[in-house]
């Protein structure tokens, strides 16, 4: 492309984007598009490459056409080819070799892990708060109530010093788990063992705690999904760590986000066996449903988190009907270049095979993600109110007064 053909006039850029001149300049004011001065220093011109990128996003629509927010972060890097890194370390390798406590310390920028303990008063208040819920309340609803309740037990929760925020993070997650009803005896004081005892009525068998530990590590952070962005916005206005965590728990509970694992659990339990998988998939497709647990907006190939979790699920106990259904779904949906399983499929497969209480996948997802959103809060607090999104008004013309 020659230098002369690189630039577009205002009219050309607006036509290429299919918008009015006023909308084009609104893009400029919002930082979506850069405006450059022409050779005469008076006219405006636009970089053809930038305009084409914006046009492509708008043309594709859906997530591709959504507002993009880019934030510098030292925490997590996503490689669309199928890798995930925490502070430069491969998350899949960390899941195989490290512990929840050690990886949390890595994300929080600590030299070494420290005990995760909730105060006696926090445990007392949190347990009483969740116990007041109906017996039918979901486990994740109990977690949200616990987080809100234990915040009131910390009179200095507005201290933003990193060491204090990290201490709050450890004690908060310990309380969120420790205040839940205990279904079995914890195998150890490790975070993975404590959470297992709140989701399963039996003690873990060989390899199962390893899978729980890996799931929590793999789900701690994933760059900047909706729940993490919301949590960073809360931190930018100096919401305390409890409110930051609660923001992540609330936004992450959307059925298109952390709560989708419940839909995958239902999919796994629907076929009577491996031979019934094609029928179930076919009926769902005929109804125009999107199969939950398959495909990803970022990874172009395999979701590395799903790969790790499904490998661990295969090593949990003897193979049975569920294992055949899992393999059948992966095979049928993935046939002829179809979408690959994502982390929600791996998480739901783990929870169903382990015999966890219903909705446990969402609990594991969001408890783990509390580590990440509080790491993002530590990064965000020094910036102080840097988010100020603007809305592009498209309503009726304003009547002059």
UniProtKB/TrEMBL annotation:
Keywords: Transferase. The keyword Nucleus does not apply. Its EC number is 2.3.3.16. Pfam families: Citrate_synt (PF00285), HTH_17 (PF12728). It comes from the Bacteria. Pathway: Carbohydrate metabolism; tricarboxylic acid cycle. It is an enzyme of class 2 (transferase). The keyword Membrane does not apply. Residues 7-57 form the Helix-turn-helix domain. Belongs to the citrate synthase family. This is citrate synthase (unknown stereospecificity). It comes from Tenggerimyces flavus.
């Amino acid at each position: 492309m020659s230098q002369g053909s690189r630039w577009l006039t205002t009219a050309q850029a607006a036509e290429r984007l299919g918008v009015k001149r006023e909308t084009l300049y609104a893009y400029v004011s919002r930082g979506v598009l850069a405006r450059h001065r022409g050779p005469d220093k008076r006219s405006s011109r636009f970089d053809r490459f930038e305009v084409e990128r914006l046009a492509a996003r708008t043309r594709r629509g859906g997530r591709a056409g959504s507002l993009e927010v880019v934030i510098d972060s030292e925490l997590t890097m996503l490689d669309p080819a199928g890798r995930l890194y925490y502070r430069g370390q491969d998350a899949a390798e960390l899941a195989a070799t490290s512990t929840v406590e050690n990886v949390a310390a890595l994300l929080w920028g600590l030299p070494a892990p420290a005990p995760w303990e909730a105060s006696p008063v926090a445990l007392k208040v949190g347990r009483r708060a969740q116990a007041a819920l109906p017996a039918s309340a979901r486990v994740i609803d109990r977690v949200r109530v616990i987080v809100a309740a234990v915040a009131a037990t910390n009179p200095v929760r507005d201290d933003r010093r990193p060491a204090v925020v990290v201490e709050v993070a450890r004690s908060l997650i310990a309380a969120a788990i420790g205040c839940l009803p205990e279904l079995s005896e914890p195998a150890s004081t490790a975070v993975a063992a404590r959470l297992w005892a709140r989701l399963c009525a039996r003690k873990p068998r060989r390899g199962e705690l390893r899978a729980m530990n890996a799931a929590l590590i793999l789900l701690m952070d994933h760059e900047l999904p909706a729940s993490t962005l919301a949590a960073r916005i809360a931190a930018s206005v100096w919401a305390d760590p409890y409110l930051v965590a609660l923001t992540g728990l609330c936004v992450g509970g959307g059925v298109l986000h952390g709560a989708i694992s419940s839909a995958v659990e239902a999919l796994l339990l629907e076929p009577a066996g491996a031979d019934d998988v094609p029928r179930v998939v076919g009926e769902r497709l005929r109804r125009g449903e999107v199969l939950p647990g398959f495909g990803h907006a970022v990874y172009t190939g395999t979701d590395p988190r799903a790969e790790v979790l499904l490998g661990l699920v295969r090593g949990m106990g003897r193979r049975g009907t569920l294992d055949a259904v899992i393999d059948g779904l992966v095979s049928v949906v993935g046939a002829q270049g179809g979408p690959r399983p994502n982390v929600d499929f791996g998480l739901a497969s783990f929870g169903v095979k382990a015999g966890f209480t219903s909705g446990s996948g969402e609990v594991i997802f969001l408890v783990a993600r509390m580590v990440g959103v509080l790491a993002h809060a530590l990064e965000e607090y020094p910036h102080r109110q840097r988010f100020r999104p603007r809305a592009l008004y498209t309503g009726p013309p304003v009547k002059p007064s």
